[in-house]
Amino acid sequence: MPIDYRPGQPWPPQDYENTKSLRLYNEYAAWYSGDVEALWSFYSNQPASAVPYPVYRPSQFQPGLIGFLARFFWGRPLTPGQSTTHSHAPVAADLSALSRSLLWAEPPQFTVPDQDRRHIASDGAVINENPAQKRLNEILVDGGWYATLSEAAEIASAYGGAYVRTQANVGFTDQPTGKVITPDHAVPMWGPDDDLWAVTFWRHVNPSAYSSSTSGPVLRHLERHEMINGVCVVYHALYVGSADKLGKPTTLQDGDAECQRLAGMVGPNGEIVVGTSRLDVSYLPNIRPHRIIKGTPLGRSDYQGLTIKFDEFDETWSALMRDVRNGKGRLVVPGAYLRSLGPGKGATFDPEQEIFTGVSVDGPDKPLQIQLTQFAIRVVEHVGVLDALWKTITRGAGLAADAFGEESGDVAMTATQANAKKNRTAGTRGDKILYASPGLRRTAFVILELDALYYGSGITASPVQLEWPDAVAPDPLKIAQTLQLLEAAKAISTRSKVLMLHPDWPDEDVDEEVALIEDENAPPPALEDPGTFGQPVPAPGDPVAPAPDKTSAD
Asked: Is the pTM of this model over 0.70?
C-alpha cells in the first residue's frame, strides 16, 4: 500500500519494539564506531555539541536506566581542572570483525540444483553445463556479492541483524547488485511465522541540517518494500518534518539527486513494480533469541550484555595510559634554576645547561637540589585485567579467546579443554549459519529473478542451496596417523577410510576410489606347479611313469 502516515507521526515510530530496539541500536552503534564523542553523548544523555565532561550532571543521581548509564565510565564526569583522559580501545569493532571472518573467511558455495546437467547449446550441441549455476557464479563475483554479504555479517554482529536489498540498476551495472542497510534505519513488518512481510527504509536527505539544528526542517526519504498480489512493489515518498516528527509529504523533486531520479520512475502512488515473486529484501539475523525484547524476530547482537565490559575495558586501558603519562620522568628544580622569559612570560629550565651562575642560597642548611620524579608503569597488572576482560567478552559472545590466533596466556591446556574451546566457537558459527542461510537462499533466488527480468538472461529462477566449508581445514598428518592406527588394528574398512579422508565426496566418487584401491591391492594370479614343466598333472589313481635312470647310458 502507498506510504501514508498520519500528520504528527513520531519518527521513528514509537511502539514498544521500535523504541526499545532503537535505544539498543544507538548504544551498539556508538561502540561499533569507536567515536568517543558518540560514546560520551549516549552515556551522558547530552548532545555531542555540549561541553564534554562537566563537573556533574543531575542524571547521575537519578534512579533507573538513565542514572545507570550516566554512571558508566564514559558517562562519568571529571573533576574541575582535570583534562580529558578517556582512552578508547576498539574491542567491540574487533569482535564484529572476528565474527565476520568466522563466517566469510571461506565463503559458502551457492548451488543451483540440476538433475541431468545436459543442455542444448545454440548450435545444437549437447553440453554438460548448468546455465543457471554459471550465471549465478558470474553475478556473485562481478556484482561484488561476496563482499556485500561479508559486510552484512559484520553489521549483523554489531546490530543483531542486517537488511540486504537486491537491486537492478540497469544502465549502470550488468547484473543485479546488493546493498546493506543497518536496522536502525528500518521499520519492519513481520508475519505470524516471523517472516519479513514488508519493511520501510528511511534516510535523511539533508543530514547537515538535521545535525546542526533540531528546529529546522528535516527531509526524510521513505522507501517501503512489500508484496502486492504476489508481486514485489516498492513505494517512495519524501517527507518534510522535524527532528522527532515525520511531518507532511512533499514531492520527490524537492529532494536530492537520488529522489529526483526516482521522481521520473515512480507511478501515481509513488510505486515501482519490481516484479519478483519474492520480497527483494532479506533480513539476516545474527543469532536468536533476543534476550531483551522477548518474542521479537529481531536478531541478537554480539554486544548484548557486554557493553558494561566494553566500558570496563576502556576504563582499564585509560588507567594504563595514565600510568604511561605519569611515568614520564620529570625534574623538580628550585626557582633559582629557572630562566625568566620576561615579565608575564613565565620561566623555563634547560636540562642541558652545564654551568649555573648567580644562584643564591637562602642558607647553609637549605642546599639547592634537583629531584627526579618518575612513577612506575604497572603494565603487568593492567594487561592481566585486560586479558581477563577480553576472555569474558569473547566467552559472552560465544567464542574462544584464542579462536582467532589470540594468545590467552601461557597456561597449558589439556586436550579436553582445547576441544571444548574449539567446540564453543564451532557451535556459535553453526548457529549463525542456521539463521543466515534462509535469507541468503532467498537473496540468491531474487538475484536470478531480477537477472531474467531486467538483464535478459532467460534463466528461470529456482531454489538455491548453500554449502558452507569447514571452519578449520583438517590436518592431513593427523588424519594419516589416525588412518594408520585404525588400519593396524583392523578396525576400519576401505570405504570408511576414503570417507574419512574425503568427507565431502559424493557416493559415486567414493565407490570409484574404493574400486581403484582394491584393484591396485589385488593379489597376483596363482602360478602353475613348476615341477610339471607344462605337463598335465595326473589324476588321483592314475599310474605314474617311472623316473628315467640317469646312471644308464643312452
From this structure: yes
